[in-house]
Amino acid sequence: MSTTTTASQGRGRGGRERILAAAARLFATQGINATGMEQVAEEAPVSKRTLYAHFRTKDDLVVAHLQDLASSGATLESVLTREDIPPRERILGLFVQPVPDAAPVRGCPFIDAAAEFPDPGSAVHAYAREQKLRMVRLVTALVTELGCREPAALAEQLVTLADGAASRAMVLDDAEYGRHARTAAETLLAHALPSTT
Asked: One matching Pfam family, short form (predicted)?
């Protein structure tokens, strides 16, 4: 097979997937706003025409990137929908970074994206907000299943702990930082569970 054929195949099928993979790498290492569309095209590698055929704007690319992360299981929230883990352990799973050996620790991609797109009306910020609201709904359902008192308030406390721990883990570059918040979450759950006596 010639070099020309190999290069053309690299730029052919799977362009959207290559664009999303390149964007994920670049966004994680240098941030969303610091990453230009031309840089994504070069990293993919695809032509700018192909890039814009898949994603008309950078906002479209960022939202697709966040959707891809949400469906991949690589976010804190993914543990909440796992049927193979008991409800209490799913909640406590929020305090474990999905990729503990990643360098540097990135924290929550939805919080990161909302910080880089601070306008609440932007598509990126709106999607990040949607994911954070989904997170609290999932935790509310789990603590309700456990029989906890005041499930809505408890869920808000737990997701606030999880988001705070993820943010501090990123700032401190410490993938194990969630252990502190997990201890607090265990205390909250213990006090909220119905008494067995």
From this structure: TetR_N
- Residue 122 — left, alpha, or beta (φ > 0 → left; ψ -120 to 50 → alpha)? beta
Summarised one tens digit per residue, pLDDT across range 64-106 is 999 999 998 888 888 999 999 999 999 999 998 766 555 678 8
C-alpha distances (whole Å) from 170 to each of 17, 175, 176 are 26, 8, 10
DSSP secondary structure of 160-184: HHHHHHHHHHHHHT-TTTHHHHHHH
User: Which amino acid is present at 20?
Assistant: L
Global pTM? 0.85
Write out residues in the chain with pLDDT < 70, as ranges: 1-13, 98-103, 195-197
The closest alpha carbon to 85, from 73, 103, 99, 100, belongs to: 73
Q: What is the Cα–Cα distance from 28 to 136, expressed in whole angstroms?
A: 25
